[in-house]
Amino acid sequence: MYKIQFPVDQSIETAVERRQAAEAARKARIFNTRQRVMGLDLDALHKQTLEKKHSKEMEQERDKDFDKLRLKHDQVLLQRDTEERKVREALHTGLTQYWDIQQRVEDSRDADLKCGLRGVFGITIPEAELGPSSMQIFQGEDIGAAQRKREQMKKTARDLLAQRVQQERSCFEDKHRKMLAEKELLQQDHSWRQLHSAEEKGRKAARIALDHYNQALATEQAERLQESRRREERENLAEKWHTLTSSMMTEGWEAAVSQLQKGKPAATNMWKGMSPEQLSAIYRERGAQCMERQRWRDTEKNREAAWNSQLLKVSSDAWQEEKRTAELRRAKRIQADQFNKQLSKEQQAHQQHLDKELYANKPTQEYFCQFNTTSR
């Protein structure tokens, strides 16, 4: 027979390697203390970090673009300002040249007034070609111009001096008028203060007099009221004494006996009391009631004494019983303490037996390291 070699099936080995890799990944996840305790999602955190970094880079790029655009706008504005300044300078230069060429002072109609005789002598036409009508100054004219100017200057100086003197005089008069007005105001103020002080003194004196008069009236009225009150009290006291001592309040039998007639009852409108027989009957009844009340009190005292003696006896018996109960409780507590001591000794002996004899072989580190070695 021929020996045939079949191809080796690699799927089994591949499956084993795949399971081993999955087991290693599982162990790495399970035995990772930080991830197991805190529950961190590393993929999500990494993704968030990348997103944050990308967004930060985008913001930086956007800021750079904005800076470039701002610089470009600034350059455009600066260039525009420079061009406008150049245009304004050119316009100003052209306008100045136009003024210098076309609008000279010497060419104006008032050149002789503004520039003296420069405008007249500045004419370029020859003097021989000018006619008589073109002459402005003739020989021998205005000989006293210098003297006239000096007189005018002196007159102007005199006028100015007179104006200054007049102004100083008016200022002095105004100051004097103001000073007089202030003095008058001060005098009026002083007189008003004196008048006000006099009026205040008069009002004060009137108030003092009125206060004295009111005090006198109040004193007189208080005396009248006090006298009226004393008189009323005397009258009320006399009326009360008459009422208390009258036969109406005493209700005496004599008040009715004097008004009785033969064969007629007593007048009740004159007498409201009782007869001596009625009073004696009332007194006898009150004495009987007092004796009955005394007998009831004596009976209550005897009953109270018997009840107190019974309470003392019951209290004594209860105290004796409580004492016996306390003795029994103390004996039981002593017995329980002895029993607890015996139990404590037994438990200590048992714990020593466990610690020294039964559990003498303590586990080592290798014993604990054999656990949690796989993920299953």
Topology:
Blueprint: H1 10-30, H2 33-38, H3 42-102, H4 111-114, H5 118-121, H6 145-245, H7 247-250, H8 253-257, H9 276-358, H10 365-369
Quick structural summary:
The protein has helices at 10-30, 33-38, 42-102, 111-114, 118-121, 145-245, 247-250, 253-257, 276-358, 365-369. The chain has 376 residues and is mostly helical. It is flat, with a radius of gyration of 72 Å.
Structural commentary:
- The protein is an all-alpha fold and 376 residues long.
- It has 3 domains: 41-124, no CATH class; 170-245; 248-358.
- It is 78% helix and 0% strand.
- The chain contains 10 helices and no strands.
- It has helices spanning 10-30, 33-38, 42-102, 111-114, 118-121, 145-245, 247-250, 253-257, 276-358, 365-369.
- The longest helix is centred in the middle third of the chain and has 101 residues, at 145-245.
- The chain is flat and about 180 Å long.
